[in-house]
Amino acid sequence: KFIDECKIICHQITWLFFGFCILSQIFFATTPLFGHGRKLPVEIWLPFDAKLKMPTYVGSYIFVTIGVGNGAGSNGVIDPLIAGLACYGATQLRILQDNLQHLDEYVNAEISNQGFSEAKNVVETKYLKDKVLYKKITHCIEHHNAIFNFIQNYENVYSSVVFTQFAASILVICLCCWQLIMSNNVTTAIYMSNWYDYDINSKKALMVLMERSQTPMIVTAGKILDLSLVTFTTILRRAYSLLAVLKNY
User: Fold this and answer.
1) 187 close to 213: Cβ distance less than 8 angstroms
2) Phi, psi torsion values for 175, nearest 5 degrees
3) Model pTM greater than 0.85?
4) Which range of residues forms the domain containing residue 35?
5) In this predicted model, what pLDDT tens digit does every residue of 65-93 receive, in sequence order?
6) Strand, coil or helix: what is 44?
7) What is the spatial distance between Cα 139 and Cα 152, in angstroms, rounded to a whole number?
8) Would 111 be classed as within a structural domain?
9) How do residues 194-204 score in pLDDT, each as one tens digit?
10) Measuring CA to CA, which residue among 173, 164, 149 is closest to residue 229?
11) What's the number of domains the chain is made of?
12) Helix (H) or strand (E) holding 162
C-alpha cells in the first residue's frame, strides 16, 4: 500500500513538473512568432546575420529553440527524479515504522498462517512466538540499515546538485535585487546634476520627482515576502533554528 501511494505521488509530480516545462518551452518558442519582424526566442551572437534570409532565420530559430528545450527537458526529468528518490526513502521509513508499531500483530498472523495456533503446549507456542519475533526484529534492523545506506548514497550523489540549485537560485535573486537597489539612486542623480542652473518650473518638477523617488522600490515573492537582505538573514536564522530543533528531536 505504501509503495503504491509513493508510485502515484511520484507519477503525479513528474508529469506535473514535466508538463509545466513543456508548456513553458512551447510559449518560449512561439511567442516571438506573434510579434513584428523576425525575432529569435533569445538574442544571441552569431557570426552571420541570421535574420537576413528566411532559410538562415528558420535554421537559427530551430537551433535556439532546441538548445533551450534540451535544458527544459533535462530539468523536467532530473528534478522529479531527485524528489522521487527522497519520497521513496520516506516510504521505506513508513514501512519500517508500520512493521515496528504492529510487530506483535504481524507475529501472531505469521504464526497463525504457519499452523502453530493449535499448538497444545503453551511453552512451545511461546518459544515459537519469540523465535518469529526475533526474526522480524532482525529483519527490521536489516531494513533500517538498508534505508540508512540508501539515504547516504542519495546524499552523496545529489547533495552537490541540490546545493548548486539552491545557490544558483539565491545568487540570481540577490544579484537582481542588488542591481535594482544600485539603480535606485534617483535623488542622488538629481542632486549631482546642474539643477541650480535650471528654470523654476524644471526645479519644481525635479523636486516632485525627488519626493516620489523616496518611496522604495520593493520586489516581493508572491506579494508576501520582501526580497531584501533583512528577509534573507531572517530566513537563514529561522532555518538554522528549525534544523537545531529537529536535530535535538
Assistant:
1) yes
2) -65, -40
3) no
4) 1-172
5) 898 888 888 888 888 888 899 899 999 99
6) coil
7) 20
8) yes
9) 888 888 899 88
10) 173
11) 1
12) helix 122-183
